[in-house]
Amino acid sequence: MDAALSLFGLAQPCQISFALDGAQNRPYVKVVPPNAKGEEKQLPLYGHRDSVSGKVTVSVKEGKALQTLGVRIEFVGTIELLYDRDQNQEFVSLIRELDEPGVITGTKQYAFAFSDVEKAFDTYSGLNVQLRYFLRVTIQRPHTSPDFKKEFDISVQHTQPEPEINNSIRMEVGIEDVLHIEFDYDRSKYHTTDVVRGWIYFVLVRNQSSQTTAWDLRLPQGKLAFSPSNAGLRTVICYSDSFGKAKIKIKRMEIELKRKESAGPAGTNVHNETDTIGKFEVMDGAPVRSEKIPIRLFLSAYDSLTPTYRSVNNIFSVRYFLNLVLVDDADRRYFKQTEITLWRADPESIA
Amino acid sequence: MAAGESLVRSDAISRIRVKRPLLHRALDAGKIDVGVKVSVEIAAELNAPKLQVLSPKDYYEVYLAVSEELQIFGNVVVASARAGGTSVVDLYEKVQYTEHVTPRLYLLITIGSALVTTKQTLVEEVMSDLLTMCSAVQNPIRGLFLRNYYAQCMKDKLPDGERSREQLERTIGFVLENFTAMNRLWVRLQYDCPPEMNKLRTKQRRELSLLVGSSIMTISKLRGVDLSLYKTLILPQLLDQIVSCKESLAQEYLMECIVQVFPDEHHIGTLEELLTAFSKFEKGVDLRLVIAALTDRLSRFASNSPENCEAVRNARTFDVFAAYLPEVVKKFAPFIQRTELLRAYASLLRLVLAAYPDRMDFVDQVLCFCVTTLQATEGSSITTGAEDMITTITSDEFFEGDDGEIAENASASTTAKAPGSGGDASSEAVQELAECSAEENVLVQVISMVFEAHKDISDRLKLRHFMAFIRVLSSPTRRKVAAMLLESISEYKQCIQDETTLEKLFVYVDPLISDGSIRKKQPLVHPLLEKLVDNGALDRESPMTIGQAVPREAHDMEGPSSSAQPSVLSFGQTQEQAEELEMDAGQQQVGRIVHLLDSSSPERLFVFHRMCFDRFRKAGEKNLRLTLPSLVFASLRLAFTWMSPKALEQALEMINCLEEFNPEKALRFYLETTKTAKSIGGSARAYILHCIERALVVLETRIVNSREQLRSLTLITSTTTAVGGSMAAVDYESLCQSVVKAGSQLLTRRDQCTALCDATELFWNDETGNDAIRVVQCLGMALDSANAVVSGFERTFLYCDIFNRTTTLFELGCNEVARKEVGQLLAISKNLLDEMGPTSKVHATRKRLARAEKYALNNPELCRSFALIAPQ
Amino acid sequence: MVLVLVIGDLFVPIKKPGLPNPFKQLLVPGKISHVLCTGNLCGKETEEYFRELADQVHIVQGDMDEYLYPERLVISIESLKFGLCHGHQILPVGNRAALNALRRDMGVDVLLTGSAMKIGYVQDDLGGLIMYPGSATGAPKVDDTTEPDPSFLLIDVQGRKIVAFLYLLVDGVSAIKSQVLLQCLVDIFFSGVPRSLCA
Questions:
Q1: Helix and strand tally (H, E) in chain A?
Q2: Which of A101, A88, A183 is nearest to A143 (CA)?
Q3: Pick from B490, B592, B675: which is nearest to C21 by CB?
Q4: Which of A335, A311, A305 is nearest to A323 (CA)?
């Protein structure tokens, strides 16, 4: 874009570039917007209190002089609600003046450093909300001339210790007299490159009874067929079937990995958005009684996983769910959604 | 439909082929990641919803195409790993990211296999992990093929007994686990379809059976699997799965697999387990098939070597079968046709015969099982249709009640009888089977096998259940079996050494001996001959076929040639005659009993003969026609070897009895008796004259067929000559007169001529001396008879006969016969022939005359006596 | 090459229970092209057995047979004519002159005959042959003091050449003795001038 503008002579008369200290040695994080719009970016990664320092270079075109009211750099952390820019929130904003008002010619370089700056949250890029950290250089212009600005994003991730309490998730769900399954995820908390392991055990499947011939399961499509258990104990639901023996012919079973993002400051309209990060088929065909189907889901297969965020600055939260879905012959789906907590482990500690 | 299916299949295969170069390019460039991606796409073909229409066979083709590509991929991974380029462990994780389960697992198995190839230590972990993951595919077809792929990939990598026993056991565990899962899927395939598809499904499942069975094969090929491991670990699990799957096709097939793939020694060591499993099978299982599979296997094994046979016997194989099989049969009786139950026992019998050639008691026990089975299943309602209905109405007592009635009437009246209403038949628990019913055929097969194996009649007489066994058969079959008891003895050893045994034999073959009641009256002329005559095969009017040479040339040109006669015989045979013949054959078997008698003691043999005679006579005199001749001859031999007039008398008593039913044979035996009597000498000499006189009486009173009369007379003539020296001259003279008289009184001139020519024998022989005058006299009478024949053609024949006879007599030294008149017969004959047309018969006769003349011309003395003139 | 089985006087089952087993094992279907039987089978079963052995089966009437068969037969094999007659009807029984006369009368090269229970062959001065197969079951005559050895003949005919093998069962049941009975070119001149015979 800069290049295009310069063709028309409207381009900024100067160019601003960043060079962060130790950039070569830093890990980079691929940031993928969840809706797949926009570009994939590789951003240098900073930890919670890492200093952000480096050099800013301002180059004015040969033979031109740029009059300024000063040059400054900011370190900003924002939460941006994409549906309503007005409600953007800057939770961090630090400013460093780099230059006095004056005239800049040629190339000028400024060193900067934001030492020990608190970066409380992880960078996040969601459907309705973004949490960004960036450096912004502003060359202030006199009078009505617009300032020259340039932003440079960095990413921030926090690693967490392994949770001390990490129970397995175990549930028994079903449709009375038709289907009764137990499932078992080995843990409730996973780090983001973890493997979800578990079992699905078919306690009862009525799929080949000779008593009736019709595959007649009187359930409205999409309606919740499994209900959550109380405290992991057995709850069997509950669509009693007035036609007597109902049957189900399962075609396959899959696990969906879902992310639910809630955005909006407390007290305002909260925007909820759920997207399916991945579908993973765990069973093909119709099981019979007492079959035990293994689950092994590699979370590392999904790039865009973040830890679970319960409430970031009271503005947004991101939660993850495993949704066990059974699809029957008529493509009806029966599902049971279970929340899992994701956390980010120190890569060193899980290797 | 089928066309659509093949289209789906070929589409899938061509999609796979299209991706092949992509895969190869990626692999050549070392882009394993791309390789994974393409491989997943290839494997995904096996998951395509479209493929659901495919039959297992078509699916198999797609499977082959996929596995071919995956193997290539796997090999490249191995090569790359060995070169240090690829971490197979990472790859093992990476392929698990694949979204769909079927392609994911194909990839996982491929990589897992590569992993094991590169890092042998991991083999158990990988095998176990793959096995666990495979249960994610619950679709029967896809699951079966996936697990087959697993089994194929792992087959050559299984750790076996070379490492350690524990590891071998774990390996077996893996294979068994996979087998169990496959079997469950295979069975589920059956239940997984609407009822109307059942048959098709069964057929498709049969096509898939090999996939399941190959696991059993794999186990059997593991090194280090010994009997104890088989008995304690492998078989119990296999049987548990087979029994608990509760599905007949699986039980049938897998049991057969077990029987076929494991060594015989293992089966011998685990018979009880196997038979116990049989008893738990589902009702649809073809019980006979599985039992036969086992017994046939053991039979073959036992017949291979004496050591094997010993092994079978040491394991008390028969005892185990005897302990379990009846229970199994009993359990299956309500569901299976009786025939099949019986066949199961037939299989057992085969084993007994192969492994226990000396145990007649075991054979006997099998016969008992058969009878018990029939008793137990009788009247049960498992009838499969008409076949069983007939069984129930043909009750035993019916035949007994209708004494002498012909069987045809039976079927009509019995239909009215309710099954089982036969009153006092209740004492007889088993009803008679219908003739040629399936059950009966099996029983006949059973007893044939026994007879085939035990040729010795003394062995056969050890069968205590034989009587009970044949009692269930229909009466014609009972007869047949009784005949077989005698018939198939290849060597007639003289095995009957005491009266009890003989009595016992009589009991055993009683159906054959006693069945005289429904025999029809025996025609005097053999039915076949009648047929022959009717068909013109034997032309009684033509002298050519009776007592005369049949020149080949003549025969070829007209009428059926003599060699064609037998075909006329079988062609003209009616059902009735066939039965008659069969019955005759049976009776001849009875006659064979004579050859079983121990001949070492003449006294005892004498008694035996008496017993036989009494028994045969009691049984029905009509059969004596066939049963008696052997006995008569044996008695005559006994009289001769023992030099006993007493025995001779007994023989005569028999012959006397035979007169009525078989006069031709009686006549011949009278003649034989004269020879015996002559040899015995002493008081026996009195019988010589008596017997020839008896023969003449029989000829006169009982033999009506003219051809037979002539034949008999010829025999009387030659016998009289032979024994003539042993009687008073006056007796001989009177006999000669009788014979000549009988000759001249024969029905036709032609026969008279022949008989009188023969009679010259009486007067020109070494025994009684020569009397040329009487010879000439006889010839003169013969010539008179010939002259009286109307047909010129026939006359030429007789002239030639006389000429030939004269020539012979001349050569024998009777010069007086050679007279000019005889010589002229040739010329007369030639003239007669000249008057007839040039038929082939005439031509042949002319040749015959020429031969006779030529011979005479060659002998100057004869030539002179006959006044023949040699042609220039 | 044509193999001809000459067999007769079995008397099954009157005198003997059956053909000896060693013979049965020897005589298998497919090798023999003609069976010429001199009679006295006495039972249908023996005929059936012969019919299994060969396509061409010719049987004549013996004195103890039911009457089923012709008295005499002439069979041409290769370039030879074989005459078949049991012989009991030819008086004096077993007499060579009488049999020679019969051979001449039938116009055959080789006369096959039973009845006399001789085993072997004779050649008349015209070069004609009379052959005796003996009794295949070893059936004795009623006044024989010993039982004869079971025997039969196998004749290999080629053109006018014959090689005859005699099979004898000696020692009761097991040992079969086979010997070349004669090997000659049958060359008959009815003119009466005997030709030299190649032995």
A1: 2, 22
A2: A101
A3: B490
A4: A335
Q: Is A284 in Cβ contact with B101 (below 8 Å)? A: yes
Residue A162 has pLDDT above 60, yes or no: yes
CA C43 vs CA B710, C122, C137: distances in Å: 22, 30, 13
Cβ atoms < 10 Å from Cβ of B517: 14
Residue A254 corresponds to which amino acid? E
Question: B812 and C95 in contact by Cβ < 8 A?
Answer: yes
Own/partner pairs for B21-26, CB < 8 Å, 24+ apart? B23/B69, B23/B72, B23/B73, B24/B72
Task: Choose the closest CB to B563 out of C44, C56, C64.
Answer: C56
What phi and psi values does residue A281 have, to the nearest 5 degrees?
-75, 130
Structural element, H or E, at residue A313? none
Chain B residues with beta carbon closer than 8 angstroms to that of A301:
97
CATH fold of C2-185 reads Purple Acid Phosphatase; chain A, domain 2 (3.60.21)
Q: Which fold has domain B751-872?
A: 1.25.40
Q: Do chains C and A touch (3 or more CB pairs under 8 A)?
A: no
- Tens of pLDDT, residues C98-115: 998 999 899 999 999 987
Taking an 8 Å cut-off on Cβ atoms, the answer to whether B585 and C191 are in contact is: no
Among residues C7, C18, C32, the alpha carbon closest in space to that of C168 is found at C7
Task: Identify the pLDDT of residue A35.
Answer: 59
pLDDT tens sequence across A59-69: 988 888 888 89
Cα–Cα distance, C29 to C27 (Å, whole number): 7
For chain A, give every domain's residue range: 2-156, 169-350
**Residue B832 contacts residue B839 (beta carbons within 8 Å):** no
CA separation for the pair B62, B48 (Å, rounded): 11
A169-350 architecture in CATH? Answer: Sandwich (2.60)
Q: What is the pLDDT of residues B141-193, one digit of tens each?
A: 999 999 999 999 999 888 876 778 888 999 999 999 999 999 999 999 888 77
Q: Which two tokens stand for residue B395?
A: 């009750």
What is the CATH T-level fold of the domain A2-156, as seen in this structure?
Answer: Immunoglobulin-like (2.60.40)
Instruction: Please give the ipTM for the structure prediction.
Output: 0.70
- Residue B872's alpha-carbon distances to B57, B151, B861, in angstroms, are 93, 102, 18
Neighbours of chain B (3+ CB pairs under 8 A): A, C
Q: Which residues contact B738 (CB under 8 A, 6 or more apart)?
A: B693, B696
Per-residue confidence (pLDDT) for residue A219, from 0 to 100: 40
CB contact under 8 A, B549 and C142: no
- The phi, psi pair for B685, rounded to 5°, reads -55, -30
A285 contact residues in B (CB cutoff 8 A): 137-140, 142-143
Tokens of A34: 């969840």
CA torsion C179-C184-C190-C194 (nearest 10°) is: -100
Closest CB from B93, B97, B139 relative to A285: B139
Q: How confident is the model at residue B509 (pLDDT cuts 50, 70, 90)?
A: confident
Contacts for A347 with CB less than 8 Å, ≥ 6 apart: A159
% residues pLDDT > 90 (chain B): 47
CA dihedral A55, A60, A66, A68 (to 10 degrees): -10
Looking at residues B290-308, what average pLDDT do you find? Answer: 92
**Alpha carbons B868 and C1: distance in angstroms, whole number:** 43
pLDDT surpassing 50 at residue B565: no
Nearest C-alpha of chain A: how many angstroms from B233? Answer: 24
Structure tokens at C122: 């004779």
Note whether B288 and B340 are within 8 A (CB): yes
Per-domain residue ranges of chain B: 662-747, 751-872
Q: Are strands C80-85 and C72-77 parallel, antiparallel or unpaired?
A: antiparallel
